[in-house]
Amino acid sequence: MLGKKLREALARLTGRAYVDEDAVKSLIKDLQRVLIASDVNVRLVFALSKKIEERSLKSEKLEALSLKEHVMKVVYEELVRLMGESYNPRLDRHKILLCGLYGSGKTTTCAKLAHFYKTRGLSVALVGADVDRPAAQEQLEQLSKQVGARFYTIKGEKDATKIVKKVLPEIREDIIIVDSAGRNALDAELADELKKINEELRPDEVYLVLSGDIGQIAGRQAEEFNKTVPLTGVIVTKMDGSAKGGGALSAVAATGTKIAFIGLGEKINDLQVYSAEKFVGRLLGVPDIEGLMEKIKEATREQDIKTIESEELTIETFYEQLKAAKKMGPLSGIFSMLGASDVPKEMLQQSEQKMKQYEAMINSMTKEERKNPSLLRSNPSRITRVARGSGCGEKDVREFLTQFERMEKLMNRFKRDRSFRSKIEKLIKGGMPGIGGIF
Ligand code: GDP
Ligand code: MG
């Protein structure tokens, strides 16, 4: 749900012909609405908005990216930051304690974890230490058989710590996973039991299991459990059905606790090592930033091809393109379509002073001259007039006209010559020199 809405919001941005400050602001409004609907904390949402706005409009744009691409990159990176880090589970011998409230998915997650380590060549012991619910032991025993893990418990024992104490010396498996009892809330009794199990087991990993559908409350829950037994990570389950999963993940990330795994269904292989990049990538419908950028470039290209076919090159559009290239890099607009390598370098690197001169010249031209600059070539007195009106030399005016004519030639060739056009399109698709390998 979060994903669909986010993709829609971004599609509204990529669908725009031109991205300006208003477009960025309206994207941010969309994002705010979507994130708050997923129960992401309002303060986090506003901090994110501010960051996106600042970075989008004020700073650090890579030359090779258009403003649209830059904004997408910023949105992606800031969402990744909001959703936490990536986890790297250890794959040596170690002991794991799972804790959490009723129905959060502890027992199911025990089996999923067992499956995860088994498929990585490690043997697994599952320890049933949920002494509250009579059926809990049987549930775990069943699951152990299903995943091929060895099951340990002491039937009838009502003290979870004693179970751990007694079975621990018998276990030879590489990975030991202990399933503990839950409560409706973290009360004194549960806290006490967890502390004791923790002391007896001395686990290497303590994972809090919580359900994604509790949304931003997940943050407070992680903090409370953390005070009882220091957590090494959180496992967020039910990410498959929850509309609030984003809220849960961002709230946990904000507490500084790592998100270790996420559960995406009831089956034993519905578990993934957590990666904020992958999670956000999936939300946005692209697997990674490279894919995202590729997608934007694709969309921009298609649009640019259409633009260039319909575009009439006039002195004004030429000047606009020069300005855009100066501000956003040669990959913007028509220059990108013509392949910046076919456009003379000096045309793309006009000095501030030159741009001012050009502007003054354009102001001294008549409407007809701007539309049809050949009028100037055919009548030198017009050039004299423009030079005088703009305070430039006639030589400068001729130089500007030469640049315009070069561009016009390239454009006509692009429109007429299929092979030239496919060469340029290939060049752009394959990544233009100096553009590939940025990410
Ligand atoms: P426990 O009380 O914490 O041990 O929770 P359980 O492991 O018994 O799970 C409670 C319910 O949640 C069961 O019906 C599970 O099948 C279901 N469940 C657990 N994890 C997931 C998940 O990632 N996705 C979905 N859809 N259901 C889950
Ligand atoms: Mg259970």
Structure description:
- There is one protein chain.
- The chain has an 8-stranded mixed beta sheet, with helices on both faces.
- Helices cover 59% and strands 9% of the residues.
- Strand 5, helix 9 and strand 6 form a beta-alpha-beta unit.
- The radius of gyration is 31 Å and the shape is elongated.
- It is built from 21 helices and 8 strands.
- The C terminus is likely disordered.
- With 439 residues, the chain is α/β, with parallel strands linked by helices.
- Helix 20 crosses helix 21.
- It folds into 3 domains: 81 residues, Four Helix Bundle (Hemerythrin (Met), subunit A), CATH 1.20.120; 191 residues, P-loop containing nucleotide triphosphate hydrolases (Rossmann fold, 3-Layer(aba) Sandwich), CATH 3.40.50.300; 150 residues, Signal recognition particle, SRP54 subunit, M-domain (434 Repressor (Amino-terminal Domain), Orthogonal Bundle).
- It binds guanosine-5'-diphosphate and magnesium ion (MG).
- Guanosine-5'-diphosphate binds next to helix 5.
List the helices and strands and how they pair.
Elements: H1 2-14, H2 21-37, H3 42-58, H4 67-82, E1 94-99, H5 106-118, E2 124-129, H6 134-147, E3 150-152, H7 160-167, E4 175-180, H8 188-201, E5 205-211, H9 217-228, E6 233-237, H10 245-255, E7 259-263, E8 271-273, H11 276-284, H12 289-310, H13 315-328, H14 333-338, H15 345-348, H16 352-363, H17 367-371, H18 374-378, H19 380-390, H20 394-416, H21 418-429
Parallel strand pairs: 1-4, 1-5, 2-3, 2-4, 5-6, 6-7
Antiparallel strand pairs: 7-8
Helix pairs in contact: 1-2, 1-11, 2-3, 3-4, 4-11, 4-12, 5-6, 7-8, 9-10, 13-16, 16-19, 19-20, 20-21
